[in-house]
Here is the input.
Amino acid sequence: MAGPISMEPGTARSPERPMRADARRNHERLVGVARTAFAEHGTDASLEDIARQAGVGIGTLYRHFPHRHALMNAVFQDALRSLLDRSRELAGAEAPCRALVDWLGAIVAHAGEYRGLARALMSASQDETSALAPCHLPLRDAGAGLLRRAQESGSVRADVSIDDLLQLTNAIALAAEQSPDDPELAGRLLRLTLRGLK
Here is the structure.
């Protein structure tokens, strides 16, 4: 993983040195343990427990991930790639509105894997400096392309914005998270969304 860019007065921007092998192993262990902990306990899982299970101290965790959202961003990169791949697959679909709603449904399903993710993504959508912005911004761009195509086909109203759709999608994921004994809730709410888009 590339480190942050270092800037000193009068010097060119240069990336930090690559991670040492032991640091890379610690990073990978922390992300793997965090992925399991977030899936089992939600995104508010104890960072101290994550560090301990990864076999490192809490200071090592914070050196790699200065705050919880930075760790969440690292954990969700695989899912982000999957959602971006799905948007590319749907980009040429014959029914652009259905493709958009299918993609929004994939976001809801992903957010449902980690309790607390939908709420975190909702807050990140309002703050481009958030450590979760690297998750939110590519999703926003991918969704904007699907929305534009659906609007150009005449199947989605012109006044619908991708920001509103992503907030609505995260709200659906949050509602589903709060109603675990109603597994059909997210699907029903997405169908209502589809009707409102037309």
